[in-house]
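Thanks for the sequence, V.! I ran Endonuclease III right away. Repeating your input here for the record:
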Amino acid sequence: METSNTNKPPRAPGRRQKAAAIMQILEDLYPETPIPLTHQDPYTLLIAVLLSAQCTDERVNKVTPHLFALADNPAAMHAQSVAAIEDIIRPCGLAPRKAQAIWELSGILLEKHEGEVPQSFPALEALPGVGHKTASVVMSQAFGVPAFPVDTHIHRLAERWGLSDGKNVEKTEKDLKSLFPKDKWNKLHLQIIFFGRQYCPARGHKREACPICKLYARP
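Predicted structure:
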């Protein structure tokens, strides 16, 4: 006698199928993805991203107008004292270290790159205060090079949605790059950030009210 399979629960979608569905939800919610950090060019974006480490974009956007009124290019910035830079950026946190990095990298841009922000990962990551995530943001948002910057928010959501095992940000970046089309990486990075802020916070998250988690979150 054959056993009926009608009562079996539906099979959970695989990672690639889940990723495609999540990508469509994000596209429906955020068809436009304005860059959240106020800037005028690759240099001011680089400085804004550096300041955003352990600081909110909102606070950075309040500080950078004052900083860029003082200096908005490598020559003008390197002509300032580290103390003057530090005084302005103090609300962003880690001000001594960030001010020193801003002053030093501005000098390096003048000395080695003719005052321009380099368009390569190795050159960017060689600058003081610039790690892989910061370089990825600049490469993707300033130069349009496909990259998938993974901050703590994207790392958290990728694990929550079962798209990565969440061991570290390097593994999460590799997993996301393997799941999503390369030409979508730059936009998806921002879409996930926007979604996390609106629907999927670290604390006080309501799974049943989240458009993605109610369908695809880990059990």
